[in-house]
Amino acid sequence: MFCYYNGIRSNKDLSDIEDDEALFEELEREEDTEIAHMRERRIREIQQEFERRQSLQENSHGQYTEITNEKEFMNITTKEKYVVGHFFHEDFRRCKIMDTHLEKLCEKHYQTRFIKINVSNCPFLVEKLAVRVLPCVMAWVNGYAQTKIVGFDDLGGTDGFSTAVLELKLTNSGVLKKKEENTPQVKGSIFQSHTNESDDDYD
């Protein structure tokens, strides 16, 4: 209960105000300390991410690399955690289109290694993996093949498909890290039959 006399607050009232002010000051100090800790954590996270990206880049991550030896190609797919590999031929127009999209994705997904190999340089893999139609893109996670994209049928069946469509296919296979933003959906099975005459047969 607050007592007033001639418009002057009692000592009890003043004491309560001082207690409130002390409490507010303590809360402000705690808030400042928490903000400082959050800032320090964020700085550490940024530094760790920078070092991780730098390490990946030193190992050809963030680049779309052509491999000329099929043994090296196989070593990469078995030793790297995430790998996207494109089997191509330099004379096939659709392979060049696929290259354009993979070049964009490799810059966006540092955690995944992007490589390509000319089918002329990997006869064993062409036979073992049944590469019959180009372009042929495969995804490996921890050395195990996760998906096989043959031609453009599963990418909308058109040369003008968006990079986001290819990104969605690869993300669903687990070889790319999922993003929060929405990506377009494409109907059809990854392993459906391919009869589009625009795809290039390789025999």
User: What is the 3D shape?
Assistant: elongated
Count of extended strands: 9
- The amount of helix comes to 40-55%
CATH class of the largest domain: Alpha Beta
CATH third-level topology of the largest domain: Glutaredoxin
Strand content: 15-25%
Uncertain regions spanning at least 5 consecutive residues: 181-197
* CATH homologous group name of the largest domain: Glutaredoxin
Give the overall pLDDT as a whole number: 81
What is the CA–CA distance across the termini? 96 Å
**Number of DSSP helices?**
5
SSE string: EEHEHEHEHEEEHE
- The strand order across the widest sheet is 3-5-4-7-8
Structural class call reads alpha/beta
CATH architecture of the largest domain: 3-Layer(aba) Sandwich
Largest sheet composition = 5 strands, mixed
Brief descriptors of the model:
203 residues; alpha/beta; 5-stranded mixed sheet; two-stranded antiparallel ribbon; 5 helices; 45% helix; Thioredoxin-like_sf
What's this model, at a glance?
The protein has 203 residues and is of the alpha/beta class. It is built from 5 helices and 9 strands, in the order E-E-H-E-H-E-H-E-H-E-E-E-H-E.
